[in-house]
Design brief:
Chain A is 68% helix and 2% strand. Chain A is mostly helical. Chain B folds into two domains: 42-229, Penicillin-binding protein 2a (Domain 2); 233-277 and 291-565, DD-peptidase/beta-lactamase superfamily (Beta-lactamase, 3-Layer(aba) Sandwich), CATH 3.40.710.10. In chain B, 39% of the residues lie in helices and 23% in strands. By secondary structure, chain B is α+β, with helices and mostly antiparallel strands. The chains are: A mainly alpha, B alpha+beta.
């Protein structure tokens, strides 16, 4: 077999280096000296990410089978803590202060959901090879109930994007675990019927964002502003881009969230169509090798774990970039390995560590 | 196979992204590139107003007005000298000055910039009228803080300044940037996240001569959230006036809930000047009196005799003394080979009279029979030596000594004499006035240690229930009653140390304190609550180096009398 685990490692490092360069560029003309500017922080996070990656790589991902529910409980506690501490600080509160840095348990919840659902769908032990022949309740309803607490706690933060992401993880794991297609179809039908009810649970600004998504021209002055700025940034990059440090949309602060959710726009402005193609190509191979690695193992648990991670990567990348290109609602998701944000970096590298370990121990 | 289908989906998705990129960057690229060019896009910032701050009755303490900046669009000026001459005649600013400023600040900048800041309102109006003659200028209105009561509650409110690197470092994850103006001190700092407005702006596309072609984007600024305090502006005013020229602090609190009704610290400062006049701020920061320090929460002082009621509780609870126990005061007590003095020869004293007279010898004996460990335990129990978690920045926690702690940190031994000092609130014990008002409230509210707070609601959202944190101390009511009776006599009895504070028709309980400090006049304390039957206010007065505690009683008297006169009881 080829050395996929080394390639996937290399790709994730390359992408994060491009990310650091972009963060540096976006915040470039800063007139206040600060001891830890964002790009330095990002580098520190990448190093922490690499440490956790190495740890995962040296360990054994199969042991996650044993501690899946413990991880689940820990994540649940962390999310509840965010909720409680968030109430104390009165507002949108996604971070927990651990030692001297901020951590976002909702990022961890993505990985935890994958581990726990992979555990659920692999019957007696991680050695299980065959998928189970489950009924509707066991195949669809119980797994949903497992991740529902996460979804609600994260929705309460409020963070619609991550909450939806958990739902996609759930769907993809149900799909990969070989549940009868009929059940998935029925479930989606039910969802379509109850979605008008779910609409009421959304906050006003989330409704507004979704409405603007359906018809961006409806509100070009308010909520559509970000999307327009993003399109201007990307489009103005043209074939070769404006060059590193040459972007104006991000640096002049026309583009909100230029170093987090909309970092792809900042990158695309400076590196142009060709640069963006290279980045997309890197992401594509990250996913492609991830799938190859997952298919190289037979055990149901490990394979689901790998496929779940790959699906998570794919959905996040696709939704984030679509969003910057004006093809998806502005939901607030980071671009993995690229956006500024410690928790996302840490969890993404941890996930790559799991993939590498799966491949090593196959 | 399900995975193969997935791979196909992935492939399609990436092709969609590539096609969309192709469309945006290569087909629409030229158009979007022109839009992004700095000289065809202009942003005119629209600043939002910070949230206002109100007192508990809706009296506005911090409001907003506007200041006017003259903004110049450099690209629209053909002949700068000619333009500046016209401007100079309108503004009455010498042409030379204007030109220097123009060259320094603006030069050939593409973006509109402020040439003259904080214009007079009249001139702003004249310029607005002359707009058609001077098309390259605009008047930009900026919200500015306005303090209708001047210096009132300055420490509670805080002031505004450009973000410093320390704050930027801490807050950049929360969306702060280096251009932000943020609160320093008080509510402005602690609740900055809520008070902070969202700036808006107009993004314009202009042609190559700088004329506006169309509006690309418009974002309305949105104001920050208003904040309502627990403070009563009338009581705050009374407290500050009574404090006068003394250096010190006054805290008045609702004893059952922890709502701060007034918090005064002297000397104070003008929040307006500190926010908008950097040279005044600089002076304030270097002044020896430290007027920017909120002494009510950031000043630590030995509590002195104000601590005695806590020692009394410890003595009664641990059965070292009862109501009838009598100790004889000869004016001093020999401990080891040192004489520990009392301020007078009191003769035979029981607990009641010892509190009324503030007899040191009695409390030396109680303290020695309890031991330093117990004193330490009770000081902590009554909230000394730890944060009250009041919702204000820069709270100090003071210090509660303990023999083991001293051994560990300083490698020194603890002596009986230290215990004696501890039992009259001297020695290493340090507390803030806020901690003392919270401590004395335990006697007013029958054994509850409350968390003090100053913000009642943010916007329309009442947060009182989240702010209130009340710890019940399991103290028998009879013990508290015994001490409260004595503390009432401190004021009402002609022999009481605070008899000067006796006010007809109002029962006040309290305790004075004269905290010795080396080489300087002692600090004067008064801590108490009123009316005794149904306590509405706890009060703590601290005067730095004011000598006798009588001075603190006089300040307290002024406050309580005026609260009564203005029927705020």
């Amino acid at each position: 077999m080829k050395n996929y685990h080394f390639r996937i490692f290399l790709i994730s490092i390359l992408i994060s280096i491009l990310g650091v360069l972009t963060i540096y560029s976006v915040r470039y003309p800063s007139n206040v000296w600060i001891p830890f500017p964002l790009y330095i922080r990002q580098i520190i996070w990448i190093f922490l990410g690499l440490i956790s990656l190495l740890f995962m790589y040296r360990w054994d991902a199969r042991k996650l089978w044993d501690i899946a529910y413990i991880i689940y409980a820990i994540t649940l506690i962390l999310l509840i803590m965010v909720d409680i501490l968030g109430h104390i600080r009165l507002g949108a509160q996604r971070w927990l202060k651990i030692l001297w840095f901020n951590f976002q348990p909702s990022e961890l919840a993505k990985l935890t959901s994958i581990i726990v659902l992979a555990r659920y769908f692999s019957y007696r032990s991680f050695k299980d090879i065959r998928s189970r022949n489950l009924g509707f309740i066991k195949a669809i309803v119980i797994p949903l109930l497992i991740i529902l607490p996460f979804m609600f706690l994260i929705l309460a933060q409020p963070d619609l994007g991550t909450s939806l992401m958990l739902f996609f993880i759930y769907l993809s794991l149900v799909y990969f675990s070989g549940v009868k297609r009929r059940y998935i179809f029925i479930f989606i039908l039910i969802l379509i019927f109850i979605s008008p009810l779910l609409w009421h649970f959304l906050k006003d600004y989330q409704k507004e964002r979704l409405l603007v998504f359906v018809n961006p021209d409806k509100d070009p002055l308010g909520a559509g502003y970000t999307m327009l700025q993003s399109k201007i940034a990307i489009g103005s990059g043209r074939l070769l881009g404006k060059g590193w440090l040459g972007g104006t949309q991000g640096q002049l602060r026309f583009l909100p969230e230029a170093h987090t959710d909309f970092i792809f726009s900042s990158f695309s402005e400076e590196w142009g169509f060709l640069g963006s193609l290279v980045l997309l190509w890197l992401y594509y191979f990250l996913i492609y090798y991830g799938i190859k690695i997952s298919l190289s193992v037979d055990e149901q648990f490990v394979r689901l774990l790998g496929l779940g991670i790959v699906a998570l990567f794919f959905i996040q990348i696709f939704i984030n970039i679509s969003m910057t290109l004006g093809m998806a609602p502005v939901v607030g998701l980071p671009l993995i390995f690229f956006s500024y944000g410690g928790s996302s970096i840490l969890v993404s590298f941890l996930s790559v560590g799991i993939l590498m370990n799966i491949h090593k121990k196959r | 196979m399900s995975v193969r289908k997935f791979l196909i989906i992935v492939g399609i998705a990436f092709w969609v992204l590539v096609l969309r990129l192709f469309h945006l960057q290569l087909i629409e690229g030229k158009k979007l590139f022109q839009l992004s060019q700095a000289n065809s896009i202009r942003i005119q910032k629209l600043k939002g107003a910070r949230g206002r701050i109100f007192d508990r009755n809706g009296t506005v303490l911090v409001d907003n007005t506007f200041s006017y900046d003259l903004v110049v669009y450099p690209q629209q000026i053909d002949n700068p000298d000619d333009f500046l001459k016209k401007l100079s005649s309108v503004l009455g600013i010498p042409f030379g000055d204007l030109r220097l400023r123009f060259q320094k600040e603006i030069g050939s900048s593409a973006l509109p910039k402020a040439l003259v800041k904080a214009l007079d309102k009249d001139k702003a109006i004249i310029l607005e009228e002359l707009k058609f003659k001077l098309p390259s200028v605009a008047i930009q209105t900026n919200p500015k803080r306005y303090y209708p009561y001047g210096r009132l509650a300055s420490h509670l409110l805080g002031y505004l300044s450009s973000i410093d690197y320390w704050r930027l470092n801490m807050w950049q994850d929360y969306g702060y940037s280096s251009q932000d103006t943020v609160g320093f001190g008080g509510i402005e700092e602690r609740y900055d996240y809520y008070l902070k407005p969202q700036d808006g702006g107009i993004q314009l596309e202009v042609d190559n001569r700088g004329r506006i072609r169309r509006i690309l984007g418009f974002k309305l600024p949105s104001p920050g959230k208003d904040i309502y305090l627990t403070i009563d502006a009338r009581i705050q005013k009374i407290a500050e006036e009574a404090l006068g020229d003394y250096t010190g602090a006054v805290v008045i609190m609702e004893p059952f809930t922890g709502e701060i009704m007034a918090m005064a610290s002297s000397p104070n400062f003008s929040p307006f000047d500190c926010s908008y006049n950097p040279s005044i701020l600089k002076n304030m920061l270097s002044e020896t009196e430290a007027p920017l320090i909120n002494r009510a929460i950031s000043g630590v002082y030995p509590p002195g005799s104000v601590f005695k009621p806590v020692v009394a509780v410890a003595g009664l609870e641990n059965k070292r003394i009862d109501k009838k126990t009598t100790f004889f005061c000869e004016g001093s007590l020999k401990i080891g080979n040192r004489q520990f003095g009392c301020w007078e020869k009191h003769g035979a004293q029981n607990l009641f009279w010892a509190i009324v007279h503030s007899c040191d010898v009695f409390f030396y004996k109680v303290g020695l029979s309890l031991g330093a460990d117990k004193l330490s335990e009770y000081a902590l129990k009554f909230g000394l030596g730890k944060a009250t978690y009041v919702d204000l920045p820069e709270e100090k926690i003071g210090f509660v000594p303990h023999p083991l702690l001293r051994k560990k940190e300083k490698r020194q031994s603890w002596f009986e004499g230290d215990t004696a000092n501890f039992s009259i609130g001297q020695g290493e014990l340090l507390s803030t006035p806020l901690q003392i008002v919270r401590m004395i409230s335990v006697f007013a509210n029958k054994g509850k240690l409350v968390r003090p707070y100053v913000v009642k609601s943010i916007g329309n959202k009442d947060i009182s229930s989240k702010q209130r944190k009340i710890i019940s101390l399991p103290i028998e009511e009879s013990i508290l009653n015994t001490i409260n009776q004595a503390m009432e006599a401190v004021v009402s009895s002609p022999e009481g140390t605070a008899h000067i504070l006796n006010i007809d028709g109002l029962s006040i309980a309290g305790k004075t304190g004269t905290a010795q400090v080396s080489k300087k006049q002692p600090h004067a304390w008064f801590a108490g609550f009123f009316p005794v039957e149904n306590p509405r206010y706890s009060i703590c007065v601290l005067l730095e180096h004011a000598g006798s505690s009588t001075n603190a009683c006089l300040v307290a008297k002024k406050i309580i009398e005026r609260i009564k006169e203005e029927s705020l009881l």
